[in-house]
Amino acid sequence: MPSDQSHEKSSLLLKLGAIVDRVPPAPIVDPMHFVNRARTLAAEHTADVDRPGRGFFADQFETEANWKTHYTGTGPEIYSQCNGKLDAFVAGAGTGGTITGVARFLKERLPDVRIVLADPEGSGLYNKVKYGVMYDKKEKEGTRRRQQVDTIVEGIGINRMTANFEAGRELIEDAFKVSDDEAMGMARWLVERDGIFVGSSSAVNCVAAVKLAKKLGPGHRIATILCDSGTRHLSKFWAKAGEIGGDTHMKLEDVFGSGG
User: Fold this and answer.
1) Half-sphere exposure of 12 (CA within 13 A, CB side)
2) Do 99 and 111 contact (CB within 8 A), yes or no?
3) How far apart are the C-alpha atoms of 96 and 197, rounded to whole Å?
4) Model's pTM, two decimal places?
5) What are phi and psi of 56, to 5 degrees?
6) What are 62-116's pLDDT values in tens digits?
7) Do β-strands 172-178 and 88-91 pair in parallel, antiparallel, or remain unpaired?
8) pLDDT of residue 256
9) Do residues 92 and 119 make contact, with C-beta atoms less than 8 angstroms apart?
10) Could you tell me which of 48, 121, 142, 208 has the fewest CB atoms within 10 Å of its CB?
């Protein structure tokens, strides 16, 4: 996994007996990109006759099993819990499996439902949806600070097209860019007001859902996903989000104080 991911994720894997190879963030064309590294390690394991078993590369970014799982599971669950009445679904994309699978299921039953992307800083998907170009301003020559998505948000945001995202891209009709400050503000607000302790991806989803609600106006039903717990983000996202507790007078408008 990328070395800039929160340590809670690798610590859990280590506790469960896994061998974790933390590699520096790198472009997808680099053999040391974490996806390419995983593919190579799996192939080496399989080719080694002295090692028991074989290597398995999940290929979560490209395998159709990803979005199809959300088509058969997540999508039907949302549709059922909303009693078939839904105006919009909002989600971020890392592999793209969630938004594609849910979108394909919902669109078959609710042709007018709006599928909206929530995209963090540094990701190029927002511009891909809005303007057809995979680009983020942080990639401008002379300003890029690292090789991957430049944000404290983990789990969503990417600067390449994946097979999973491509399978549903035409169904995504709008997108919202979410800043790190907005994500951290929303995460604090959810704890203070609702007692929900979420991770960075969930916070981005909620910010985009509120932005869409403001755009659509009253009387619309919007669904999103709380896909990660704050317990997986203590050392990175929550370390920067600040202390919580006691700020019960915090208003939702405070989340968008930076102009969102």
Assistant:
1) 8
2) no
3) 24
4) 0.89
5) -130, 125
6) 999 999 999 999 999 999 999 999 999 999 999 999 999 999 999 999 999 999 9
7) unpaired
8) 84
9) yes
10) 142
- Each residue's pLDDT tens digit, 225-237: 999 999 999 989 9
Q: Considering only CA atoms, which of 123, 101, 105, 122 is closest in space to residue 113?
A: 105
26-35: long-range contacts (C-beta < 8 A, 24 or more apart)? 26/147, 26/148, 27/147, 27/148, 28/160, 30/147, 34/1, 34/2, 35/61
118 vs 125: CA distance, rounded Å? 9
Tens digits of residue pLDDT in 4-25 = 888 998 999 999 999 999 999 8
Between 205 and 134, whose confidence is greater?
A: 205
Residue 29, amino acid: V
CB 117 within 8 A of CB 126: yes
Asked if 108 and 245 count as a contact pair (C-beta separation under 8 A), the reply is no
- Side by side, the strands of the sheet bearing 172-178 are 172-178, 114-120, 88-91, 222-223
Helices (H) and strands (E) in the chain, counts: 11, 4
